[in-house]
């Protein structure tokens, strides 16, 4: 309460101050009437001059002082509109940010050097301020260029763009916009574009020199996403071809020397974040059960520590929801029996709907009575709270030392999310979260020895943990021929590239020489995995491109079926309404078609709620479908459907699935429950969520999930004849290892041959 | 010479299958098929399945993609060779990152702690085994030492005997005033024919021990003799306490023989005996050389102090 009031007061004083400034600026007789916002309506003819708060600005030779004067208004230097009061109040806060103090230093280095490495810890204001500093010096709009600032996450790109649009007092999508996959929120006036790193990479495919940009800022480079790593490799070459292009690498961790080294000893500017010391505690002995230890620690903090919120890091949705439930139970007991203060527990993970994510920002509950034990909130989060989301008020961090990380092994051809130990850098980042508002404490649920000896220094960059098929296709499209010597900061194991090339060759996207085929070129136009793209492109051959388009969209969004812990039975019953006996892909499609039906569209939200499907995921799929449809129309890929009455309606869809996913096929092992993946011969089980019965001998799957059991998820039945027919290169029987799969395929091939001979008739037998 | 067709063509590379397995009978085949069918149809236990799953995963993970991959051929076009890395940095990866599935809720360091404890136990066990091994070595060494000592003791005894005899001979010479020395191997003479009547302590410490041992032996013999002679009396009593010989009786006998000297302390002898055998032997060898120009190793008494013809002081010199 008290805090809120002081905020209010601050706003008031700011309003007053602005008034004074405005009065002051209007009184001197020297004042150019054209610059007086109150007289702006007098002179509409020369709005450009009056708008030009940037009149004395010489590109790449400006100072912080000049920029600040322009920022002070009274007119918006970029739009010539009068600046709002909200702008002024935000401006005040912006000037408090640590980066502001080093604006001049930043400008000097930026002007002097083509490449700059900028280190700003979380809370320094780098993501919102640096691009604006650049705008005032680079003046991209005067040259018809833009400044790009990449973000690893879609949400961040959107929310930061919105924030900066507010800061600059412009409408989002005009001067400041964002561009993420399947959503372009920019316009002809856009001069600052926040975008996902993946989007910039896609743009480079058509514009190899990224000529639309005069400055490119790679933000959160320390996260080392696949796209950022590839972009760095590309930009390292582009800056040589384009001396006029400026590049800023922004990182939140101090290990920025690696970036410096990679970019030929580029100058480095570091701005300290606003952090308080954090005391770190280790356990004496390794924990037998990290979740149990985490809960114990949270309750201990609540019972004994002074005021301050708690942030607990766990690995995934299920674990988090379970932990929240348990903490709530225990706290209720503590309140009843030990007079503990109130504790509000909030889960936080990526697939949580945004409204629920927002709840973490609610203030902690007050004590039960005046002067009573403090109330607090406890956020139980995945590692999204590690860097991307900043929650003020956190004083205690509980770190069990695990996170779910993507892993890919080219030998197993499985890309999966696995619970893995975090890195030292990650642990440091987590601890830092406790020191945002005041000195904090971090409880590491492992020994100091384990920290030193078991945690790797840095998290492996995504490029070392990913299937590179998609990336290879993009790079080929980008004109990078020699992938072997492409200068990556951390090159992956050669086998990863080998496997990617091989897969693309089977998909006929690359020929045997490794050159892009026509299909490959077309596939690279789609922001999709090559298998999905190939399926979509070949779908007209199976007379079902409309359906495959929908299916592709559905496979590109989060799971559409919802199964809340409390209503599992009901949810399963609802899913059965859409179930198709031949598989999950077809079931998803049925659900989508029902969603698009008149009945559902009357009140789609209610309908989704009633039928246990995710409205968010389905709407997103709708949007993705629309974007993909545009690309298909542009590329002249025919959209068609088999009539629903035709008995081949579903079969055609199943066959089209094989065209993309023939490398993800499993055959039932004997008569048991297990399946064997073809070629790799991994023993797998159908995921319990499947609608498919146990009687399908051959299945195509969307995902191989590696857990304590191997599962294949989103599964649909196929016929082995289709495999031989649609993907003869992959199903070259001679290339198979001796075993059940080979024998079965051989039998099918023989049968097919006999049938053909019989059809051809005895006359052609010789 | 014409080669007949019947002759074995030893250049022929085809070998007839000599290990011709006996034909499977229909019954055997049926049994085999049935067994195979059962094996296939059997529902495996969860543990078995899990093991198989893991084994298959491990097998796939440990097998690197080889040069037959089409991807490899495409890379080879750009000069890639087996064992190369990608990119331009020096420390690029060669192997993909390992995939490990976490199967429990153990905290960081828990698994390795367990492993460490296990390893410690293993190491302790290994250490124990090693200790045993070491004792075995030590045992052999001890045997070697014992053997060596036995050998040295033998040499010491014979050197002492030589010295004793030479000294006695010298004494006799002195007493009988014989001018000519007896040149020759003294070992050939029977030493025991000359009874020693002098007090023990006047004997040269170098060989006093053998004299003393002899005396002790003699005393024991006499004691035993006395004991046997008194046996009938003892057996007549038949009481246990009387079975032990009477110390007073035996002591009296001993006194008559060794003049009670045997029970006295002999510091000089103790000191000498405390020396290592090799040193005692060396002392004796030198004594013999200096006093009698006798080389213990040559077993020869030289005419003068030059010991002309003797290769040296130690046994090794005489090898």
UniProtKB/TrEMBL annotation, chain A:
Annotated region described as Disordered, given as residue ranges: 1-38, 60-79
Compositional bias annotation for Basic and acidic residues: 1-20
Q: Under which EC number(s) is this enzyme classified?
A: 3.6.4.13
Q: Write down the CDD domains for this protein, in alphabetical order.
A: DEXHc_DHX15, SF2_C_RHA
Does Iron-sulfur appear among the keywords? no
Query: Which reaction(s) does the protein catalyse, per the Swiss-Prot or TrEMBL entry?
Result: ATP + H2O = ADP + phosphate + H(+)
Q: Which Pfam families match?
A: DEAD, HA2_C, Helicase_C, OB_NTP_bind, WHD_HA2
A cellular component term (GO) from this record?
post-mRNA release spliceosomal complex
Lineage top rank: taxon: Eukaryota
InterPro entries listed in its UniProt record: DEAD-box_helicase_OB_fold, DEAD/DEAH_box_helicase_dom, DHX15_DEXHc, DNA/RNA_helicase_DEAH_CS, HA2_WH, Helicase-assoc_dom, Helicase_ATP-bd, Helicase_C-like
Respond yes or no to whether keyword Magnesium is given for this record. no
Alphabetical keyword list: ATP-binding, Helicase, Hydrolase, mRNA processing, mRNA splicing, Nucleotide-binding, Nucleus
Q: Name one GO biological process term.
A: spliceosomal complex disassembly
EC main group? hydrolase
Name all Helicase ATP-binding domain ranges.
107-272
Residue span(s) of domain Helicase C-terminal: 294-479
Q: Name one GO molecular function term.
A: ATP binding
Task: Please give the family membership noted in the entry.
Answer: Belongs to the DEAD box helicase family. DEAH subfamily. DDX15/PRP43 sub-subfamily.
Summary of the function given for this chain in its UniProt record: Pre-mRNA processing factor involved in disassembly of spliceosomes after the release of mature mRNA.
The name under which this protein is listed is: RNA helicase
Organism expressing this protein natively: Delitschia confertaspora ATCC 74209
From TrEMBL, chain B:
Q: Which organism is it from?
A: Delitschia confertaspora ATCC 74209
> Bias category Acidic residues: which stretches?
1-10
Basic and acidic residues compositional bias, start-end: 34-49, 87-107, 119-152
The UniProt GO MF terms for this protein read: nucleic acid binding
| Region (Disordered) residue spans | 1-53, 83-199
Write down the SMART domains for this protein, in alphabetical order: DUF4187, G_patch
The name this protein carries in UniProt is G-patch-domain-containing protein
State the source organism's domain of life: Eukaryota
Q: Which residues form the G-patch domain?
A: 67-113
């Amino acid at each position: 309460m008290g805090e809120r009031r002081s905020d209010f007061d601050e706003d008031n004083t700011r309003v007053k101050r602005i008034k004074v400034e405005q009065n002051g600026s209007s009184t001197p007789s020297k004042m150019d009437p054209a610059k007086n916002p109150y007289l702006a309506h007098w002179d509409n003819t020369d709005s450009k001059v009056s708008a030009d708060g940037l009149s004395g600005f010489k590109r790449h030779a400006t100072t912080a002082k000049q920029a600040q004067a322009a920022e002070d208004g009274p007119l918006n230097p970029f739009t010539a509109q009068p600046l709002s009061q909200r702008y002024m109040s935000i401006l005040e806060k912006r000037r408090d940010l640590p980066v502001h103090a080093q604006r001049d230093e930043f400008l000097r280095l930026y002007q002097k050097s083509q490449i700059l490495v900028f280190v700003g810890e979380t809370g320094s204001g780098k993501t919102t301020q640096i691009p604006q500093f650049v705008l005032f010096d680079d003046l991209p709009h005067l040259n018809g260029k833009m400044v790009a600032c990449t973000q690893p996450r879609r949400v961040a790109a959107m929310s930061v763009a919105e924030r900066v649009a507010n800061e600059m007092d412009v409408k989002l999508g005009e001067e400041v916009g964002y561009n993420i996959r399947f959503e372009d929120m920019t316009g002809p006036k856009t001069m600052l574009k926040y975008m996902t790193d993946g989007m910039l990479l896609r743009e480079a495919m058509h514009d190899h020199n990224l000529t639309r940009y005069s400055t490119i800022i790679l933000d959160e480079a320390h996260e080392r996403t696949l796209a950022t790593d590839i972009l760095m490799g590309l930009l390292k070459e582009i800056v040589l071809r384009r001396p006029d292009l400026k590049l800023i690498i922004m990182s939140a961790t101090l290990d920025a020397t690696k970036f410096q080294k990679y970019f030929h000893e580029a100058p480095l500017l570091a701005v300290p974040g606003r952090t308080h010391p954090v005391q770190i505690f280790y356990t004496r002995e390794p924990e037998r059960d990290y979740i149990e230890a985490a809960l114990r620690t949270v309750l201990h903090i609540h019972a004994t520590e002074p005021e301050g919120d708690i942030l607990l890091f766990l690995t995934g949705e299920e674990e988090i929801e379970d932990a929240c439930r348990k903490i709530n139970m225990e706290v209720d007991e503590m309140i009843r029996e030990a007079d503990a203060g109130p504790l509000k527990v909030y889960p936080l993970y990526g697939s949580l709907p945004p409204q629920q994510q927002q709840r973490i920002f609610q203030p902690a509950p007050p004590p039960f009575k005046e002067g009573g034990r403090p109330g607090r909130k406890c956020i139980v989060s995945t590692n999204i709270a590690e860097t991307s989301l900043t929650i003020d008020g956190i004083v205690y961090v509980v770190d069990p030392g695990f996170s779910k990380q993507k892993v890919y092994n080219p030998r197993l051809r499985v890309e999966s999310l696995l619970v893995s130990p975090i890195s030292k850098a990650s642990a440091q980042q987590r601890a830092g979260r406790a020191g945002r508002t005041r000195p904090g404490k971090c409880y590491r649920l492992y020994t100091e020895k384990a920290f030193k000896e078991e945690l790797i220094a840095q998290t492996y960059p995504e490029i070392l943990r990913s299937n590179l098929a998609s990336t290879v296709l993009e790079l080929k499209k980008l004109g990078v021929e020699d992938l072997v010597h492409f200068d990556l900061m951390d090159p992956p194991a050669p086998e990863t590239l080998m496997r990617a090339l091989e897969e693309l060759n089977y998909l006929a996207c690359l020929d045997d020489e490794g050159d892009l085929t026509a299909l490959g070129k077309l596939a690279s136009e789609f922001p999709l995995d090559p298998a999905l793209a190939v399926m979509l492109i070949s779908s007209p051959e199976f007379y079902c491109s409309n359906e495959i388009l929908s299916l592709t969209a559905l496979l590109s969004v989060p799971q559409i079926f919802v199964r809340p812990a409390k209503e599992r039975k009901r949810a399963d019953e609802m899913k059965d309404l859409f179930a198709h006996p031949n598989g999950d892909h077809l079931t998803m499609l049925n659900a989508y078609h029902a969603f698009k039906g008149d009945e559902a569209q009357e009140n789609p939200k209610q309908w989704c709620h009633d039928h246990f499907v995710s409205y968010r995921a389905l709407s997103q799929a709708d949007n993705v479908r629309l974007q993909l449809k545009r690309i298909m129309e542009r590329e002249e890929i025919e959209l068609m459907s088999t009539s629903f009455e035709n008995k081949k309606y579903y079969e055609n869809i199943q066959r089209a699935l094989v065209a993309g996913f023939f490398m993800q096929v499993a055959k039932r092992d004997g008569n048991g429950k297990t399946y064997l993946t073809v070629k790799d011969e991994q023993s797998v089980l159908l995921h319990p969520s499947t609608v498919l019965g146990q009687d399908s001998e051959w299945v195509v799957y969307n995902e191989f999930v590696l857990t304590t059991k191997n599962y294949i998820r989103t599964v649909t039945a196929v016929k082995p004849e289709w495999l031989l027919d649609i993907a003869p290169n992959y199903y070259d029987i001679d290339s198979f290892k001796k075993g059940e799969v080979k024998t079965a395929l051989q039998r099918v091939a023989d049968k097919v041959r006999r049938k053909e001979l019989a059809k051809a008739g005895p006359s052609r037998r010789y | 010479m014409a080669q007949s067709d019947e002759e074995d063509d030893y250049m022929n590379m085809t070998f007839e299958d000599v290990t011709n397995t006996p034909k499977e009978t229909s019954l055997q085949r049926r049994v085999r098929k049935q067994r195979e069918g059962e094996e296939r149809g059997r529902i495996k236990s969860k543990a078995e399945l899990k093991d198989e799953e893991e084994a298959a995963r491990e097998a796939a993970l440990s097998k690197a993609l080889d040069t037959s991959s089409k991807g490899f051929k495409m890379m080879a076009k750009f000069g890639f060779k087996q064992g190369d890395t990608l990119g331009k940095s020096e420390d690029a990866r060669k192997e993909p990152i390992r995939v490990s599935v976490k199967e429990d809720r153990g905290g960081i360091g828990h698994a390795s702690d367990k492993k460490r404890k296990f390893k410690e136990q293993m190491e302790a066990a290994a250490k124990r085994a090693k200790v045993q091994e070491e004792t075995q070595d030590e045992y052999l060494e001890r045997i070697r030492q014992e053997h060596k000592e036995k050998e040295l003791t033998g040499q010491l005894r014979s050197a002492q005997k030589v010295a004793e005899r030479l000294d006695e001979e010298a004494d006799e010479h002195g007493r009988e005033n014989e001018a000519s020395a007896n040149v020759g191997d003294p070992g050939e003479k029977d030493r025991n024919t000359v009874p020693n009547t002098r007090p023990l302590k006047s004997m040269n410490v170098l060989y006093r021990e053998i004299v003393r041992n002899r005396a002790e032996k003699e005393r024991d013999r006499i004691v035993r003799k006395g004991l046997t002679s008194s046996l009938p009396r003892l057996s007549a009593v038949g009481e246990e306490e009387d079975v032990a010989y009477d110390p007073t009786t035996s002591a009296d006998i001993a006194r008559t023989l060794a003049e009670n000297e045997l029970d006295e302390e002999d510091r000089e002898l103790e000191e000498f005996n405390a020396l290592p055998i090799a040193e005692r032997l060396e002392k004796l060898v030198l004594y013999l050389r200096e006093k009698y120009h006798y080389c213990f190793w040559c077993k020869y008494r030289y005419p003068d102090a030059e010991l002309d013809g003797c290769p040296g002081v130690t046994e090794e010199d005489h090898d």
